[in-house]
Every structure is written in C-alpha cells, then in structure tokens.
Design brief:
This protein has a 5-stranded parallel β-sheet, sandwiched between helices. A 3-stranded antiparallel β-sheet has the order 2-1-3, with helices on one face. A hairpin with a 5-residue loop joins strand 1 and strand 2 (about 35). By secondary structure, it is of the alpha/beta class. It has helices at about 10-20, 40-55, 65-105, 120-135, 165-175, 195-205, 220-230, 235-245, 250-255, 310, 325-335, 340-350, 355-365, 375-385, 400-420, 425-435, 450-455, 465-470, and strands at about 25-30, 35, 60, 180-185, 210-215, 265-270, 295-305, 315-320. It has 18 helices and 8 strands. The longest helix has about 40 residues, at about 65-105.
Length: about 475
C-alpha cells in the first residue's frame, strides 16, 4: 500500500492520536497523504478544492486503509517488542543461573547435627566441580600457570654437580616415568641434598615439565605453599579459602586437582621434621596426607631424617654422604681453578670429609681476594690449627657430628678473614641470622637499619649486630 509522504511508523502514531479524539476522517493522496481529523472543515475544504482543481485527487475516508496500516505496523511493533523481551529474559536467566551456580559452588558441604559431613557429600561436590570444569573447557592436561612462590631457587645451583652422577640418572628416569613412590634424599646437613633437587628441577623445566619448590620450615609454610600449588593446578579461590578456614581438607583439595595436571615435579626441601608434613591428623608416613602415591608426577623430599619409619612404606630413601676425594677435589677446583693441583685439592677434600658444603665454603674462601690462604695447601695448613676432628675414611663418609665440625672450621676461617679485613661485626650478624628458620627468606624489614649502620661503619660497636636484629 503506497502512501507517499508518511512512513508506517508515523501513520501508526497519527492514527493513534486521531482515534483518541474520534474516528479517522480523511486521507487525500493529492494532498500529500495528510490525515485530516473530524472537525477541521477548513483544512478539509482546502484539500477538496485542490483535489478537484487538479483532477487527480482521490478522496475517501481513511477508515479502511489507515486502519489496515495501523494494524499491520502495530503487529510489527509488538513482535519486535516481544523479541526484545524474550532476549532480555534469556540474558537475565543466564545471569541468575550463573550467580546461583557460583553460590552453590562456594557453599560448604552440608553437615549433620554433630557437625560432620554426611557420607557422599564431598564426592557429590567433587563430581560437580568436575562437571563445571568440563563445561568451562578446563580439562586435564591444561598447562598450569606459574607461581613465584613455588619457583625453585635456581641461582643456588652450582655450575657442576660432582660425584652424584648415578643418583641424578636414577632420579631423571623417575621424573620421566614416575613409580608412584615418594623419593627422600636423606643425609646430614651439607651433603648436597638440595643441590641434587635443584639440578632435578632445572632438568625438568628444561624438558618442559613444571617443577614446584616448597620449603618445609614448618607446617604453616608447607600448608600455605601447597595450597598455592592447588590454586596453580586448578582449584578455585573459593575452594582454597575453604581449605584455609578448615571447611575443606587442604590435602584432599590438592590431590583432587594434582592428578589432572600434566607430568610434574614437586620438591619439598629441608623437611627435617616430618611432623611439618602432617595435615588433618594424617602424618607423613600414612599416605593419606600431603604425601600420596602419584603416577602423574614425582615427589622428592630432602631431609636429615633418614629413618624409613618416618616416611612410610610408599617412600624410597636415597642416602647421601660425603664425596670421595676425587669428586671433592673437583668441587674445590670448580670454585678456585688456580689455587692448586688436582692432588692438592683431593687432599684438602679428604681433610674436610668430602662434605659438599664445607668444600664450597673452602673453595670460595681460597678464591676470595680478601683471604690470607690463597692456595689449597695453605688452607689445609690453617685447618690444622683448629680444634676439630676430621671425618674418618678415605671415601669421605661423614656423620652428622663430623660434618658440622668441618663446616664450622670452614666458617671460622672465613670469619677470621673478615675480621682481619676490618669486618668483625660479621660474626655477630651471622650468629643472629642462624637463629632464624632455615630455608625461608629473611625480610629486610626485620633489621634496625640505624643500629646496623653503626655496627657496619667499621668502628667498635660491641653487640651492635645482635641489637640490629632485636
């Protein structure tokens, strides 16, 4: 229906206005399609005269055509309005469903009158989590994100790891094909357990496998880092928050997601107290706490505790001792290449019991420009004046007591050199730092800088280093 000069939408509006005051009266094609309401006779006469003068006017009421256009356009308008309302309804329903699903996901499991979770509630929640992950496209095999808190301290790794070739080869094979057991690197302090673990972490990352490093200074640190790991491998913030408040088992949360991750390496360093790995009443040897059988990745622990009963039947111990004299001599020459022959280095290594930490300290001291003993021979002679008993046995097998004595002798020589160079405060500062937890970074904010500045200014300040850390 052709009505020049007026669109369908405008006609609907005009007809609506006209019907509000009375029936639509007039529509004249010659007048440009104007709609003339009842009661406007002057306008109507003008239209009639122009139509008669032109001979082309077509006069008639708009009751039929206008009303038809009104109904058609109104149908379109209401259809469009209905479609818009439907779209808004769909979006609103989606938003409400998302809010309810998130609220249900973060809601703790129901508990009975005694505060216990009914049987099957946690399993049902786990199934819901898996379904939601599948719907979100998470899926197993996704590459976990990185976390600075779980980064292995690769800067502590020496250029060469001497005398541990067989162990490194065995652990590398286990990292590629885990056997489901926890592997414990056990031995006295200073035997290089953490160095072996660092080498393994570097090798895993070189091959594209994630390697996570957890210091085991105490139970709180272990829990915090392993919950961080749970978040890395897929746990949602609400789930981690529930684990922190005790509404959900922390170890259960970690092991719900960890098997879904790609092949991984988890290193728990300096777990000298297996009690730090206890969680929710499950001790380290139970196989139901933080340490569980896993074929998707390898768990390596470094510890001074070599008692198999502390780690359980699912653990395998690898005992580390001192290095043989040849490997120990290589460690010394790595640190101080020009300090003497291989024979002199091997002799000094034997004197230090082959303990890697003592060898590292001795090599660093000999290579220092502040040292009075710049060769292996002179360093060995300086050791002879110390009141300590070296380890027995040419193969460098060293007990805890002998290892501590070797390290103490090496430290005394280094501190004596610092004191002779005008830094006597170093001994007091190290004495204070030795009282802090091992394996945890020391916050600089703990130090009183004004006291530390006076202590390190070079002048005498008896006890200043100790007061700086008070």
């Amino acid at each position: 229906m052709d009505k020049p000069g007026i669109t369908g939408g405008k006609m609907v509006m005009e007809c609506a206005k006209l019907h509000a005051s009375g029936p639509c009266e007039q529509w004249d094609r010659a007048a440009g399609g104007r709609v003339v309401p009842r009661g406007r006779a002057a306008d109507r006469s003008a239209i009639d005269s122009r139509a008669q003068g032109s001979g082309s006017g077509e006069r008639g009421t708009c009751n039929a055509e206008c009303l038809y256009a009104y109904r058609v356009d109104a149908t379109f308008v209401w259809a469009a309005a209905g479609s818009g309302a439907a779209a808004v309804g769909v979006v609103s329903a989606a938003v409400v469903w998302r809010i309810r699903s998130r609220a249900g996901r973060d809601r703790p499991p129901p508990r009975d009158a005694e505060g216990q979770v009914p049987a099957g509630a946690e399993q049902h929640e786990a199934e819901q989590n898996e379904a939601e992950q599948a719907g979100a496209g998470a899926g197993a095999g996704a590459v976990p994100v990185r976390s600075e808190l779980l980064r292995a301290p690769a800067e502590r790794l020496p250029g060469h790891v001497r005398g541990r070739e067989d162990l490194l080869a065995r652990l590398s094979a286990l990292a590629a094909e885990p056997d489901g057991r926890t592997h414990v690197l056990a031995g006295p302090g200073g035997t290089g357990k953490s160095t072996v673990a660092l080498w393994l972490a570097q090798e895993a990352e070189r091959q594209g496998r994630p390697a996570w490093w957890v210091p085991a200074a105490d139970a709180r640190t272990v829990t915090a880092r392993l919950l961080e790991l749970a978040a890395v491998v897929g746990a949602r913030p609400g789930e981690v928050a529930m684990a922190k408040t005790g509404e959900r088992g922390p170890a259960d949360l970690l092991w719900h997601y960890l098997p879904q991750a790609p092949p991984w390496l988890l290193i728990i360093d300096n777990a000298d107290d297996p009690g730090a790995l206890a969680v929710d009443g499950a001790h380290a040897a139970s196989g139901a706490g933080w340490l569980r059988a896993a074929t998707g990745g390898l768990i390596v622990i470094t510890s001074r505790n070599g008692d198999p009963r502390a780690w359980g039947e699912h653990a395998e111990l690898h005992t580390l001792g001192g290095l043989d004299r040849v490997a120990g001599g290589q460690v010394l020459r790595d640190r101080a290449p020009g300090a003497g022959s291989a024979r002199a280095a091997a002799a000094l290594s034997e004197r230090l019991g082959g303990l890697p930490l003592a060898l590292h300290l001795a090599g660093s001291q000999v290579a220092s420009e502040f040292a009075a003993e710049r060769t292996f021979g002179r360093y060995a002679k300086a050791l002879s004046g110390r009141a300590w008993q070296p380890a027995d046995g040419e193969n460098g097998e060293n007990g805890e007591n002998g290892g501590c004595q070797a390290v103490a002798a090496a430290w005394e020589l280094a501190l004596d050199a610092l004191a002779a160079g005008g830094r006597p405060q170093a001994a007091g500062m190290l004495r204070v730092l030795s009282c802090l937890a091992p394996g945890v970074e020391i916050p600089a904010a703990m130090l009183r800088l004004e006291v530390l500045g006076r202590a390190c200014a070079g002048g005498p300040d008896e006890g200043g280093a100790e007061r700086a850390a008070d």
